[in-house]
Write a structure and sequence with these properties.
Layout (H helix, E strand, L loop, with lengths): L1 H25 L21 E9 L6 H24 L2 E9 L4 H13 L3 E6 L3 H13 L4 E3 L6 H4 L5 E3 L4 H14 L5 E6 L3 H16 L3 E7 L8 H10 L3 E5 L2 H13 L5 E4 L6 H7 L6 E5 L8 H14 L7 H21 L7 H9 L4 E2 L4 E2 L11 E8 L2 E11 L2
Parallel strand pairs: 1-2, 1-3, 3-4, 4-5, 6-7, 6-8, 8-9, 9-10
Antiparallel strand pairs: 10-13, 11-12, 13-14
Length: 408
Amino acid sequence: MKRIRRRWLHIRSWLPVAMVAFLVTACGGGGASPSSSGSGGGGGGSGGVIKIATQSPLSGGNATLGEAIKLGAQLAVEDRAEDFKKLGFTLQLVPYDDQADPKKGVANAQMIAADQDILGVVGHLNSGVAIPSSEVYEKYSIPMVSPSNTATQVTDRGLKTVNRICARDDFQGPAGAKFAVQQLGAKKIFVIQDKTAYGQGLADAFKDAAQKLGAEIVGYEGITVGEKDFNGVLNQAKAKNPDLIYFGGTYAEGGLIVKQARDKGLNMKFMGGDALDSSSMVEIAGPAIADTYYTSIAADVTKTDEGKKWAQRYEQKFGKKVESYSSYGYDSAMVLLKAIENAIQADGGKKPTREQVRDAVRAIQDYQGIVTKVGFDNKGDNKYAKVYVYQFEPGQYPGQQIAELAKD
């Protein structure tokens, strides 16, 4: 009896390990081990499967924008699938849920590295997840094209694999400050930030630029992601009686801050960055959203006839209206796929290595996407990125685009 019990305990000890291995394989993690040389994969033969991955939050408080990135990339893969079939390859999308969590993003990046058919990543939504995850991509030469990471540190590290099609915080923050001071007439500003790489970086860039333009920063406070009650920080803001409250953070907290501020009689203008650019922001804040402005790194795709047709196609396919990063997820994926195609052609039709795709991505210049033009500099920043200013209206999304700002 003791021998049977010991054998059962032994079986139970390896069952969880076997189940994890099965789940990793089933969700696209791949069965191959990452190469210690970092050469990445799959070069040398023609034909076969080529995959690109997405990394974005598909669950939790940031899921609205994270899913938009995934769906945009999915549409791009479907649009290019026939082209790759003619080249002899089956094109696939492998979505990963990073849950807006740096640890989860890194764990996913390790699984992506293990799947030698994955030649690139579209993502992330959150800079704080992208920064540590991209260290893994760099190790295994996996190119990343981000639709939304704005923190300066994302590209300032000089990694060969990291690229973005959107503007940086050191452009977005000052652009928002210039609009707030010169167009909205803000002289006294209270700044709130969520202590993340994105939120604090954006708030600091806004604050510094606003001060240089002559505004007084009457308060600078941090909140924690996931909080629901902002009475403490709003009481501080009320005591300072600012002309404008600026928030560096995402819509999950931003919507609540706006709503609770209005409930306290704080009826001054409210402003934030691109992470407020979501239909969920309007839903959370409700009627309190009036007199709220935001800068976005994402253009309104419906401003052009081609963009309108694309938005209609997106809505028909997914049964959802486009979000701010739907089109940027699409353009990021299309840039990545163009680079893979270029690498295939440069290598005589063979399946390219990750290094070849990495270099082909960085070489992209003057690519016209559905919503933005893309040309990477030597750090992986988009030379054509712009910042847009929107105003929310109660019950309506997206906000009304009221300004378009190019970098000086």
